[in-house]
Amino acid sequence: MSDIVNTERREECLIIRVNNPPVNALGHAVRDGVVKALTEVGDARCVVLHCEGRTFFAGADITEFGKPPLSPSLPDMIAALENCPVPVVAAIHGMALGGGLETALGCDYRVIDRKARVGFPEIDLGIFPGAGGTQRAPRLAGIAATLAMTLDGKPVSAARAVEIGLCDEMSDGDILEATIAFARTKTVKRRIRDLPAPSIDQPAIDAELAKAAKARRGQIAVGKATEAVLASATLPFEAGLEKERELFLELIGGSQSRAMRHLFFSERLSAKVDGLNAAPKSLGLIGVVGSGTMGGGIAMAFANAGFAVRLYDANAEALKAGLEKIRSLYMASAAKGRTSEAEALDRYDRIQPADNWEAFAACDLIIEAVFERMDVKKDVFAELDRVARPDAILATNTSYLDVDAIAAGTKDPSRVLGMHFFSPANVMRLLEIVRGDKTSDTALATALDAARKIKKVPVVSGVCHGFIGNRMLKGYGREAGLCMMEGAAPEDVDKALYGFGMPMGPLAMADLAGLDIGYDNRRSMTAGEDYEPLASVLQDRLVEMGRKGQKTGAGIFNYAPGSRSPEPDPDVMAMIETLAAEYGVKRRDVAPEEIVERCMLALINEGAAILSEGIAQRASDIDVVYANGYGFPRYRGGPMCYADELGAKHILERLEFYQEKYGPKWWAPAPLIRELAETGGTFGQWKKG
Q1: Which residues partner with 287 through β-bridges?
Q2: So what's the pLDDT on residue 689?
Q3: Does residue 530 register a pLDDT over 90?
Q4: Which of 234, 449, 508, 611 is 20 to 30 A away from residue 686, measured at CA?
Q5: Phi, psi (degrees; rounded to nearest 5) at 283
Q6: Distance (Å, whole) CA 543 – CA 538
Q7: Sheet with 365-368, side-by-side order of all strands
């Protein structure tokens, strides 16, 4: 046998041991080793399939994604387990995910450790279990329970796995010894393929489909996975496997799965910075300045990861209110069963109020989250520079401002960088880490390490106004506003982009954020140079009328008391028509396709500029920002992945069309787009020289 798969004989039981760290991925060497090990059954009366290390098979080998399969394939290995002449029992500990669970289902029986979990996460890659999982699982757990696991993608507990019949016994002790003891009691094989087909419980199935339709709107894998699972009830087993394979191959060759797999790898690549070899500093105590929504969320993110946090606000009443808000959020989480009450209180207790700046003297990392104004930020950093240890890292949570200008006010700019969290910071996965001109490699490595420890997806950005995400958002919002002024009703603008896959339309999003935010930002900008006044004139007039969005019950849309649902307002529509006339705009029908195209082209064009300027290291980093921070539909892969699907030549043609129609100010194609159109290259392949 090999170093990865070996066998051990204990009297009448053959034990197949797999050791492929770190997660026992089902690569070719594992599959080949298991198939060969099964030839050693001889006079054994049972077989136990066991994985060494921390987990059972946690899934496929991602290094094989997109490559021709090597024999034996996963279905081949599972068939070998099924066809073994004696009962085979899987010993499940850690996780059995995707192909790992399908492998366990290829065995006759399954014993599971009480702390283990099993699941089918493939839907997050735009596919579903393709090695018999959709045919075997329903014969044990039923169609509704299988659909719940397949369409949700989240693993279920050992107790749930036993309850629905996926596993036969739960163990509290040594999983291998428990499984050997169980296997010795089994004298008859029980191949799942030989079990009766499941029945169809339509109301239960409809309930699962309704949940999936909401959670995975626009994802074609939902329908295909459902079709595959239902085939377990309507087709003979072999025909069901063929249907599963047909649908699986259709998905894996399609654009949605390609986009979602792109994001899967991109999120693992974004933390890798070319040329960065510095070791991160060890982090113990974290400081947070500002106890508002953002500061409180940042404090919670670190407390949730086990860090001690000191939270300070110059306003004592604001600090008290902030701590009360944090406590209420933790208690609400416990009430919903997401954590125990004891754990919620432990996390809350990790956040201690600070009475003064000197409380930060012992902190390893201090993050500022105060009002978005340069003079306020500089005052905070002057205090931090005074009290912090010389080796402490100082971070600003600014979403727009010049990190280099903030750093310039300190004695050592090398320890200063941006850590731009997204609200709510304890929930949103994205963290934009802004590398200043003088930021040291150690500071950057420490911020990246902190992101990993608090389970964020980090993307490194250079310094510019708005960094990656908010800089690109400006053009997206501009075109939405212009489409509205040129003829589309506000609700039609939002409907078009919601239909594209965005979680909400840009105009309702502006109402949610507060129209006064953009209004205040524009006060320091030059109209026509820094922004297009026609795109925001309505919002400015509304703010001056006191209509600031959801928080005032009215903005671009109306909001009933206690409701967040936007309702069209005829008075706003009349204002749009009046303002359009004032600006000499002849309103027309603006098709949904034009709305989507203009908003997406604006994103892509700015993204190309950001990439060529070196603000983003790679195109996929931009995609990670938009998928995790701005709700860009994962099944489209992010704006630059979507651009590659469209093709640079097509994008250039459409940009030139709008440039001719509206002028070059906002529509001049980024030079990189022209370069890629001429060379036939893609954003995904391009690298700054």
Answers
A1: 310, 366
A2: 75
A3: no
A4: 449
A5: -110, 135
A6: 9
A7: 351-353, 308-312, 285-289, 365-368, 393-396, 416-421, 430-434, 457-461
* Residue 102 annotated as catalytic: yes
Instruction: Tell me the mean pLDDT in the region 202-216.
Output: 95
Instruction: Please tell me the number of Cα atoms within 13 Å of 537 on its side-chain side.
Output: 20
* 472 Cβ contact list (under 8 Å, min separation 6): 466, 603, 606, 607, 610, 622, 626, 639
| Element containing residue 437 per DSSP (H, E) | none
CA distances from 76 to 32, 85, 158, 567, 570 (A): 9, 16, 27, 56, 64
Q: What is the pTM of this model?
A: 0.94
Q: Are 468 and 610 in contact (CB under 8 A)?
A: yes
Tell me the C-alpha distance between 149 and 33, whole Å.
Answer: 29
**pLDDT attached to residue 62:** 78
Q: Which of 11, 82, 122, 678 is catalytic?
A: 122
Tokens representing 423? 């609200």
**Cα distance between the two ends of the chain:** 47
Is the dihedral angle over the CA atoms 462, 466, 470, 473 positive or is it negative? negative
Taking each helix axis from N to C terminus, what angle separates 619-629 and 255-269, rounded to the nearest 10 degrees?
100
Q: Which residues contact 11 (CB under 8 A, 6 or more apart)?
A: none
- The most distant pair of C-alpha atoms in the chain lies apart, rounded to whole Å, by 92
Question: Sheet holding 5-10: strands in order across?
Answer: 5-10, 13-18, 46-51, 88-92, 109-113, 169-171
Inform me whether the pLDDT recorded for 493 exceeds 80. Answer: yes
Yes or no: say if 391 and 281 are a contact pair by the CB < 8 Å rule: yes
For residues 32-49, average pLDDT: 97
Mean pLDDT of the 273-301 span: 96
15: β partners: 8, 48
Report d(CA 643, CA 608) in Å as an integer: 10
Contacts of 184 (CB under 8 A, 6+ apart): 12, 13, 45, 46
Percentage of the chain modeled with pLDDT above 90: 94
Backbone angles phi, psi at 271, to 5 degrees: -80, -5
Instruction: Please tell me what DSSP assigns to residue 567.
Output: B
- What is the Cα–Cα distance from 199 to 208, expressed in whole angstroms? 16
CB–CB of 673/648 below 8 Å? yes
Domains of the chain from N-terminus onward: 5-253 (3.90.226.10), 285-461 (3.40.50.720), 469-590 (1.10.1040.50)
Please tell me which residue in 82, 102, 244, 368 is annotated as part of the active site. 102
Phi, psi of 64 (to 5 degrees): -95, -5
What is the b/e burial string over 581-614, where b = at least 16 CB atoms within 10 angstroms of the residue's CB?
Answer: eeeebeeeebebebbbbbbbbbbbbbbbbbbbee
**What one-character-per-residue DSSP string does 295-327 give?**
HHHHHHHHHHTT-EEEEE-SSHHHHHHHHHHHH
Categorize the per-residue pLDDT at 1 as very low, low, confident or very high, splitting at 50, 70 and 90. Answer: low
Dihedral over alpha carbons 555, 557, 561, 564 (to 10 degrees): -100
Sequence-separated (6 or more) residues with CB below 8 Å from residue 254:
126, 220
- Residue 304: partners with Cβ closer than 8 Å, 6 or more residues away: 347, 426, 454
Would you state the structure tokens that stand for residue 402, as one six-digit string?
Answer: 């010049």
DSSP 3-state of 397: coil
CA–CA distance, 140 with 163 (Å, rounded to integer): 10
Cα-based angle 140, 143, 149 (whole degrees, multiple of 5): 85
The string of pLDDT tens digits covering residues 550-587 is 999 999 999 999 899 999 999 999 999 999 999 999 99
Task: Note the pLDDT of residue 69.
Answer: 82
Strand 457-461 and strand 285-289: pairing? unpaired
Residue 118 DSSP SS3: strand
Query: What DSSP letter does each residue of 235-277 carry, written as one string?
Result: S-HHHHHHHHHHHHHHHHTSHHHHHHHHHHHHHHHTT--TT--
Pairing between β-strand 88-92 and β-strand 46-51 as defined by DSSP bridges: parallel
Residue 383 annotated as catalytic: no
**Region 288-300 average pLDDT:** 97
